[in-house]
Design brief:
This protein is α+β, with helices and mostly antiparallel strands and about 375 residues long. The protein contains 10 helices and 16 strands. The N and C termini lie far apart (about 45 Å).
Length: about 375
């Protein structure tokens, strides 16, 4: 028995040493172009994946897409298919700007973990430590970790409550979030998963409180600029509207055609009068790929250290069962096999496969269409030799 205990602790000690070791030199990788063969991938399967989307556009199952695959720091696929705006016959382009919707959430979680690494907060802290509106009998046990993992108990069915110009002039993220603290959770925090946009908007207000900076300034100075995400922002830029894709919202019949209705069109007013943390980010495939590669690199990209390796591991550690497919961590959905991903309600999706040192992007603006992204992911995975 004593011998078994010694063996048990020896194994634990070995694992601690393994996970404590610094990551190899690849952590400083910058993305560059490469061939599929150079990273051990089957180019025919990647071409087959692109064909899925070309066929979908031809059938009008989707209006357009930008696809990207990277492995071992090499971009081996970057294709644009279909239309950025179909009526005007504007083709989708590789540098098209997309409304990222909930693909914003991994970036917000990263910002929170950066502040933890800075010593400005702890994920075990209660929200009430930073937001007085949460300091009541209903909300004071909600922690930052609960908000990050969608286990706060909040069941508020809107992104924001209606804004009243008489109460908030000009409106602020903090004032909008204060209303969530007043409502409080419907179930005990930490006991169940429920996807919560108000929870992530609360994290945005906490970032502002802990950093002393407006949310957008923090994201730009601490994440976007260091990673070279020069086309990423959290509001529409009038100078870049011509590069934004139009959103086409589809209603798919199982056996029939998709009925699309034009949604957001470049130049439309913003959805909300305040910057939000639950969504709202605008980006390109290349910019978001840098963010994903930073995760694969263990928190660095080139000379920029965004997060320490232990914070990366914290982000992608399963926290709570989300559905039959897997768990939610801090800003990421995590499969049983250890892949992590996120999607956005306007049609974007990105995933990371750390075991294969691989990432992929499927960016569309055709939510509700017939999107072959699941088949694409399978083809990309099977293309790895």
């Amino acid at each position: 028995m004593k011998h078994a205990r010694r063996m048990h602790w020896t194994v634990i000690a070995a694992l601690v040493l393994i996970f404590a070791r610094p990551l190899p030199a690849q952590e400083t990788r910058l993305l560059s172009q490469g061939t599929a063969a150079s990273v051990g991938m089957d180019s025919a399967k990647l071409e087959q994946g692109v064909r899925l989307f070309k066929d979908a556009v031809e059938r009008d199952d989707l209006r357009g897409a930008v696809l990207m695959v990277g492995r071992h720091g090499k971009i081996v696929l970057h294709e644009a298919v279909g239309w950025k705006h179909r009526a005007y016959r504007l083709p989708m382009e590789k540098d098209t700007l997309f409304r990222m919707a909930s693909n914003t959430k991994p970036v917000i979680a990263t910002a929170v973990l950066m502040l933890e690494a800075d010593g400005r907060l702890q994920v075990a802290d209660t929200a009430s430590k930073y937001l007085e509106s949460f300091n009541n009998w209903k909300s004071r046990t909600i922690t930052i970790a609960h908000l990050l993992s969608h286990s706060s108990g909040l069941r508020i069915p809107v992104i924001f409550f209606p804004f009243d110009p008489k109460e908030e002039n000009p409106p602020t993220l903090r004032a909008a979030v204060d209303k969530f603290g007043t409502v409080g959770p419907e179930v005990e925090p930490g006991t169940s998963y429920s996807y919560s946009n108000p929870g992530y908007n609360t994290l945005g207000a906490i970032i502002e409180a802990a950093s002393g900076m407006p949310l957008e300034d923090f994201l730009k100075s601490r994440i976007y600029d260091p990673l070279g995400m020069t086309d990423t922002l959290n509001h529409e830029d009038p100078a870049k509207l011509h590069r934004m894709a139009t959103v086409y919202r589809g209603r798919a019949d199982k056996d029939g055609p998709v009925a699309f209705q034009q949604g957001f069109t470049p130049g439309d007013p913003p959805d909300f009068p305040v910057l939000r943390a639950s969504g709202g980010m605008i980006s390109t495939a290349m910019d978001y790929a840098r963010f994903l590669q930073m995760y694969l690199n263990g928190g660095t990209y080139g000379n920029a250290r965004i997060l320490p390796p232990e914070s990366i591991r914290k982000a992608v550690t399963p926290r709570i069962r989300a559905d039959e497919q897997g768990h939610y961590g801090f800003g990421w959905r995590i499969t049983e096999g250890g892949d992590y991903s996120h999607g956005g309600s306007d049609g974007t999706m990105a995933w990371v496969d750390p075991a294969r040192d691989l990432f992929g992007l499927v960016f569309t603006q055709s939510p509700g269409g017939k999107n072959p992204r699941d088949e694409f992911v399978k083809l990309v995975t099977s293309a790895c030799k």
